[in-house]
Amino acid sequence: PSNDGVVFDNEINNENSDQDDHDGATITVVPPGTWDLAMRKTLATGQAASVNPGDTVTFTLEVFNQGADAAKDVKLVDYIPTGMTLADSQWASLSSTMATTTLANPIAAGGSAQINIALKVSNTVTGPIDLTNYAEIADFKDINGVARVDIDSTPDMDPANDGPLVDNAINNEQADQDDHDKAVVSVNAPKVFDLALRKTLAQGQSSTVAR
């Protein structure tokens, strides 16, 4: 294993002088009593990345349990951007800019759970513009209902204290707390309509006629 050059994970074409006949994989072993949740937010499967004013947009939030023990009652908060409103009965509105829901079913260690949220684009939004929707884990409990502390992030309802956001990161990449994430949808420019009309005498029609 010592004569294969610098290892570049998952390379199969000798990139950067890494011999492609070897590779590695890493696992992280966490001690019992460790709670570590992460969240990834994306556009839902089948959801168009570009929409029009008045359209409803569906996002998917996936919570990963990277700890050693099961977690339950995972509370999620969604920060609704200006130009969108909540359109989902699974979520409770806290204000015009915040909604919350709770994943009641336990998430086993190494497992994950998903939930969608639907937001409607206001008819008054003028594109082209990107709307960014953030969400975060607010808190969670262990299987016995005891509130627990995440080992590498701080679940709460404050979107301003999570570090520089790295989209879809779930391992605290570049100091991004992995309990929050974002997804972006583009709103199209207004459709432009331009009609004109021309009226003429029909071909062969004399321009002078008798009464």
Outline:
The chain is built from no helices and ten strands. With 211 residues, the chain is mainly beta.
Entry keywords:
mainly beta, 4-stranded antiparallel beta sheet
Write a structural description.
- This protein is mostly beta strands.
- It has strands spanning 37-43, 50-51, 56-65, 71-79, 84-86, 92-95, 98-103, 112-121, 129-142, 180-187.
- The strands form 2 sheets. It has a 6-stranded mixed β-sheet, with no helix packed on it. It has a 4-stranded antiparallel β-sheet with strand order 1-3-8-5, with no helix packed on it.
- A hairpin with a 2-residue loop joins strand 6 (92-95) and strand 7.
- 23% of the residues are buried.
- The mean pLDDT is 89.
Tally of alpha and pi helices: 0
Helix/strand order, N-terminal first: EEEEEEEEEE
The multimeric state of the shown protein is single chain
What is the number of strand segments?
A: 10
What is the strand arrangement across the widest sheet? 2-10-9-4-7-6
Largest sheet: 6 strands, mixed
Shape, principal axes of CA atoms: flat
Strand content: 25-35%
Assign a percent range to the helix content: under 10%
Round the Cα radius of gyration to an integer and report it.
26 Å
| Overall mean confidence score, pLDDT | 89
Estimated structural class:
mainly beta
Distance between the termini: 105 Å
Model regions low in confidence, pLDDT < 50 over at least 5 residues: none
